[in-house]
Amino acid sequence: MRKISFIITAAIVLFACNKTNLKINGVSENNSLEGKKVYLADMDQTRFDSTEIKNGKFSFAAMNDSAKIVFIRINTDDEESLLKSFIYEKGTINVKIDAQNNISVTGTPLNDTYSEFVRQNKILDEKYEQAKQISEKAANDIDKEYVALGYKFAKENAKNLVGQIAFLSAYWGMSLEQREEIISLLDDKLKKDPKIAKVISNIEQEKVSAVGKPFIDFTAKDPNGKDVTLSTLVGKTDYLLIDFWASWCGPCIKSLPSLKAMYDKYHGKKFDIIGVSLDNNSTNWTEAIEKFGLTWTNISDLQEWDSQPAKLYAISFIPNTILLDKEGKIIGRNLHVNEIEDILNKK
After folding, report:
1. Residue 329 maps to which CATH number?
2. Host domain of residue 117
3. Are 247 and 288 in contact (CB under 8 A)?
4. With a threshold of 0.90, does the pTM exceed it?
């Protein structure tokens, strides 16, 4: 009886051990990582599994039915940990850490595709850094390459997680038609992602505020608490730029010098700017205006992403711009400074 009981128990244990469909095999070529902890963490950095590097190897095994993006994290002797995102999906995933601590992840279909997407983005990163040294226009041209890459991968992988990642990386630069195309192809489950759901909800409003449509009026307060209405500025100059930004937005701050240079060059009867901040802190907003010398009209309702002007124009990322002509017609959305200057120079 004890023998039968032992066999049954052993069978249960064996069944439990074999009930895995995901395996991660890791290899480290960096001897300094020997004995270090390796963690798996969700997007919010919550750790859900760990192991240790022994004899240059580590492994994980689990049961997983739904692919998701996770991080592999390794604490080193330096202040910064090694961190690499990959797709946690069923199959055998191979992780390699080379002597320079570069991490590669391959072995499963989605990880192979995701790794290729990341590789091509890194090439563009290098090109972008070089382009910045040449001109803003050169850098903007690389931006368009990022968007084209994201569109390509999103379209080719619309039914899987890589498509979602690619779409969210580049939707900001896609045309309205391209976004609608990708969304129509996306798996229904992917459409429920909060970020994609927000893009979808913005599309109908963006159609109302698309190029060729008349401006939508709004009112918000300036730094002195005085109400400023957009329509009071429309028509006073040949062109009016609505610049959506925030003091907490790094890319917004980086774009200010070129925006100021353009304002100084064209300000007058030809051109004006109204800055709409998505700040939620009045002090941070007004200090940024003073620090960066933003002398054009500035307004905010201090509601961050619940900003009414931003909602009216379907703004889902910043920096972002809307360009109006003298009649108040929208003639451009999300334009770079060099693109705006091209328009100003034509008249």
Report:
1. 3.40.30.10
2. 113-208
3. yes
4. no
